[in-house]
Amino acid sequence: MAPLLLTTIAAPDRDLPTPLAVQLYRSLLDAIRTGRATGSLPSSRKTAIALGLSRNTVNAAYDLLRAEGAVDIRHGAAPRVLPPKVSDSAALPSAGARGGLSARGEGWARDGIRRSAGGIMAPGHPDETLFPRDEWAMHLRRAGRRRQGAGFAYADYSGIPALRSVLARRLTIDRGMQVEPDQILVTPGSQASLSLLALALAEAGDMALIEEPGYPGARNAFRGAGLRLCPLPVDAEGADLSGAPPARLVYLTPANQYPMGHRLSLRRRGQVLDYLNGTGALLVEDDYDSEFHWQGREIAALQGDAPDQVIALGTAAKALMPALRIGWIVAPRHIAGPLRAAQRNLGLGVNIHAQAALAEFMDSGRYRAHLRRIARIYGERGRALAAALRAIPGLDLPDPSGGVQLGCRLPGGEAGIVRALRDAGYGTAALSDYCIGPPQEGLITGFAEATAERIDRFTNVLRAALASFAG
Amino acid sequence: MAPLLLTTIAAPDRDLPTPLAVQLYRSLLDAIRTGRATGSLPSSRKTAIALGLSRNTVNAAYDLLRAEGAVDIRHGAAPRVLPPKVSDSAALPSAGARGGLSARGEGWARDGIRRSAGGIMAPGHPDETLFPRDEWAMHLRRAGRRRQGAGFAYADYSGIPALRSVLARRLTIDRGMQVEPDQILVTPGSQASLSLLALALAEAGDMALIEEPGYPGARNAFRGAGLRLCPLPVDAEGADLSGAPPARLVYLTPANQYPMGHRLSLRRRGQVLDYLNGTGALLVEDDYDSEFHWQGREIAALQGDAPDQVIALGTAAKALMPALRIGWIVAPRHIAGPLRAAQRNLGLGVNIHAQAALAEFMDSGRYRAHLRRIARIYGERGRALAAALRAIPGLDLPDPSGGVQLGCRLPGGEAGIVRALRDAGYGTAALSDYCIGPPQEGLITGFAEATAERIDRFTNVLRAALASFAG
Hints:
The structure is a homodimer. Chain A has 14 helices and 13 strands. The first copy, chain A, is of the alpha/beta class. Chain A is globular and about 70 Å long.
């Protein structure tokens, strides 16, 4: 294949406001997408010389290309161009632009594309390089070779028995839940769990309480299902339900508030249980990072205190990989059966081999070893990023206590600062996007991929952006 | 492990109306579920002698246990008891029995459990023994070991580029569709496709036309989404739209009417296109068995004639395995983008390794060889079952021209006959369950698993049941 002629790409322009690395990244991506670059890219040294750039700049651009999935970079080898991809955020008309969807459908579509945007250090993204690929491939292969029996067709639509059993055991022991395997529904992930619950447990027009700022996935699913949303203020003790109106559903992230990272205090846990008791509402307890938590999590899930009124959600997205598309619902006993029937008609099924691989892996000692390893690494990266941000005048935030993202409030200038970070390839999100009421300004950044080099570059871009935009 | 003591199980009673094989099957299943039978079951010879039964009866019972997933039977070895399963149709309360779900949720739950019932020769079930396990396991392993890049998280939520490309190519060539990869949405199967379309393209209260008899999955999804359903009569030319009221959605299975097996005639194709033209309705063309069709299918998909008004559905369930949970939507260009956003918020994602394995397998010559093989076998089995049924006085039906099930009308006694077949372990369904208007009586039976021995047993049970119930 013909190597890329560096003379055919636009040299980055120092007079433009866009960082040189981003300009180079865009030129190279364009060359790849139009088929001018195939095979391998020149080494960063060659490119740096040819275009009069520093090698750091070129490496940053290559890192962005890798995050985009446009090239594969292996140690010591030149970046290899990967086959072109059809992007989810490609130039298709956005929701509502040309009709076609019903008003209800536009409710379901709202903000759906934006959430797939990606970028380095995007909120909630784990680090792919820590995914145990060989081990997973081995389990997949074994699962693929096995006869599946009744599970081959539609019998185990809400999850194969082996996975439901191991999940019930782990959630009982690790999270203090009261759960039998037949209360578990395996779903294609938390987003599917949320839309199933919103559609099956509430009517359009029913009230739901959600944290403010809170998880956009819950907001989008509840909004799609036509619920009215009432924001609950969040402070260092987590969500505050005092004065909350009666509601059908309450959505909380008690173990690690998403995205701000607080843990629900004991006092507030009592408040939540009193509220459930008084109103008969159902609590959706999103235990999204329960599969790994890297500080002592001595407090059990709320589900264990009120198993008839709490529906707990979990996911394999953080401990393993979002693209596995495996999550689970722990449903109260009297709801599990009907919910399973609704799951069947909504079509929320999960690939059987992925389920079997997860069940087998979770049942092995190596799963715990994997969790310990990523918990250590994410802990270090999260604390390093928080420390680097605290070193910037005007920013203040605590060390994260779990999860794979942290939130940091800004004194102002959110839109420009987020744009600058995104232009530089970061998946950083605006805190205002996590609000349904008056927007709060801030940044939400993932830290699972936050290596020392990336933190350096990130804080450099951020410092410059703060100087330009934060007044 | 202790072998099963045959003296501990109830001996089948010839005076009961239930077939001896079914009685034995139930006793053994009970012994397995309560833990009295572990390890291996006695050979059919030993069991036959101990209980005074014929070996055929014992083998039939063992075959039922295998279909249930309770035992594994290998050539020449005694049946091995498999670990107990949590059944989807377990003794949980059914929808609405104790509340918990909203009225909308009960709409979604309706008939959801019944559809997972299973049994041998259930409608729409392929034969697991024909699934290319080793090949699939190899592709899965390769996919598992690969770096996924941007697809690792949420970027390719509507399907990985490799799969969308190969699907677009195949659907263009094999089915005459007008489709680019970015019009394809990969979903967790046809049921997910149907609920996405119903929620995103129509409002509650909108009218949808569906075939009568027709596919229960479409009925359940549309009903869940609150659509009003209008039945279209089906005859030997397929569905008849003459006099149909204006509607938002029309659901048809033109290539092979589900469940009766007719192909939409050329005249009726014209009628459908005129209707779309006149009303602006959207057609959902369920091309569910397009991945393999075992008679010349010279007529292309309707999608190719009206790509802006037709949404085509496909699935890997028939050619490979339902539990892969992979289907796809071919959306009109102006709808694809917003539909993708709605898919994201509904959480209808598919495991990435299964997608990659399918893309790689479809792209290999061995996929065509697999399709040719199953088409030949299913063709033989379908014709053999149809011939065996025609040999029964009072039953008449044509040879099936595709699919993995056939429909046969009954002169009466449907309920009793279906019960007798289900008691004997068959997944045969009542035609009346496929109707929304006045019930039509008949049987819907899968033939993918219809070996000669099973056809014999099936027709014996059916003859006896017809004598008892068909007046």
